[in-house]
Amino acid sequence: MTTRKKHTNKKIRSKKKKGGDLNSELLGASRKGDLEMVKKRLEQGADINKANNDGATPLYIASGLGHMEVVRFLIEKEADINKANNVGATPLHEASKNKKDEAIEFLVENGADLTIENNFKTPLDIIAEKYVEVPDKEIMKHQESVNIHELQSKNVRILMEDVKSNPNNKYNLKQLESELSLKQDDIDEAKGNIQQSIETKEEGMKFITSIIKKAFHKKSPLVLISTNPIVKEIYDKFERVKKNQLEIFDKIAEKKLLPKDIKNEIASNFGGKGGKRKTKKMKTKKSKMKTKKSKMKTKKSKKKTKKSKKKTKR
Q1: Which of 3, 126, 197, 277 is the most buried (most CB within 10 A)?
Q2: Residue 141 shares a structural domain with residue 103
């Protein structure tokens, strides 16, 4: 009996070990972005939501590293999109922290929760910080550098004038000229860095606007998604645009006396994806209908004229 028990215990341990190995190998494959290995380990029975000691799941790891093939596959296989690690960070938090644009967009489009906080920060708080506030600080830092180098250049020029008027001066004119040239190089470099940071900030603003737009269309309340003033400003713009659009349609509805149900349907559609395009399509459809009607009328008139001609001949 004891030998049988030992044998069964060994089997249980080997199964546990095998399962554990599969899970750890799945985590490793997710870290490397090895899609084929991820597929194999899941087929062999690895747990798609099994986390490591830090609470990081395969999706969390792949999202943070921007391994999009793995991210897409894990979501397709219904991995928990909002499962947080030991400190409360979700895959979306990790992707936002590491500025993985494609992963952020994909996770948001597939239902990642924008309201979950990690260290009192939602994903949009992190995006605002990484994509806009950091380059903004860089601009100020480089501008300060320009100011310092320009002041130093000014002092060198004063010394150069002094050397020209007083040849016995301890400073050498050639040395000062080379120093001034170096200072100018420093100024040009700092100005180049400012321009680069401005472009980075502009790109960041475009990106965060696209994410806020997605949140806005999902009707996620601003209070829950972020307290950041950058997010608030962009979100408020979307609200103002929507309000203006609804007011325009109210006026159109009053003038044309549209039924309430049609008016409400138009108002709900307007401001969604391709709001203006929809109105253009409606106009083109109407114009096509008009041209068809006019063609029908011309055909009828031609037939009438033909009939009248036949009658006159008879």
Answers
A1: 126
A2: no
- pLDDT recorded at residue 308: 60
Residue 255 lies in a domain: no
> Quick one: pLDDT at residue 18?
55
* 189 or 311, higher pLDDT: 189
Whether 47 and 131 map to the same domain: the answer is no
Please give the tally of structural domains in the chain: 2
User: Is the pLDDT higher at 104 or at 16?
Assistant: 104
- Asked if pLDDT for residue 225 goes beyond 70, the answer is yes
309 domain-assigned: no
Q: Give the structural domain span for 79.
A: 16-113
Distance from C-alpha of 160 to C-alpha of 173, rounded to nearest angstrom: 6
| 114 closest CA partner among 131, 127, 98, 100 | 127
Q: Which of 216, 233, 268 is the last residue of a domain?
A: 216
Q: With contact defined as beta carbons under 8 Å apart, do 61 and 31 qualify?
A: yes
Q: 161 with 74, same domain?
A: no
Structure tokens at 4: 């049988």
Q: Is 41's pLDDT higher than 90?
A: yes
pLDDT at 300: 60
- Co-location of 108 and 147 in the same domain: no
pTM of this structure: 0.71
